[in-house]
């Protein structure tokens, strides 16, 4: 009989808490990054490029690139693969540079 990795280590699901993404509540677990929460919810793109508006999500997953940028609690340009999800976070898709309200 084949056992799952969770069964092998005796793990159990961790308690979850909600974070908001574009107005939708998503379950997060302690220690998850925002990118991990979005992936677990089936969301693969959460930013658009500055030129052309192409969708982007996680690429490297280790903070070396900038494809996974999101706006967290009103702060743009946060790397979703590095930022831990915290209870009550509000995350929004980042459009372009994330500074559209500062355009002159």
TrEMBL record:
Keyword list, A-Z: Oxidoreductase
Domain of life the protein comes from: Bacteria
InterPro entries: 2Fe-2S-bd_N, 2Fe-2S_ferredoxin-like_sf
Gene3D superfamilies on file: 2Fe-2S iron-sulphur cluster binding domain, sarcosine oxidase, alpha subunit, N-terminal domain
Any Pfam family hit: Fer2_4
Protein name: (2Fe-2S)-binding protein
Native species: Streptomyces racemochromogenes
């Amino acid at each position: 009989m084949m056992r799952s990795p969770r069964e092998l280590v005796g793990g159990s699901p961790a308690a979850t808490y909600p974070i908001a993404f574009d107005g939708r509540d998503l379950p997060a677990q302690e220690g998850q990054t925002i990118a991990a929460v979005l992936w677990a919810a089936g969301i693969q793109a959460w930013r658009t490029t500055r030129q052309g508006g192409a969708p982007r999500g996680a690429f490297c997953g280790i903070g070396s690139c900038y494809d996974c940028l999101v706006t967290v609690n009103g702060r743009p340009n946060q790397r979703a693969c590095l930022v831990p999800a915290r209870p009550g976070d509000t995350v929004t898709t980042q459009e372009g540079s994330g500074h559209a309200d500062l355009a002159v």
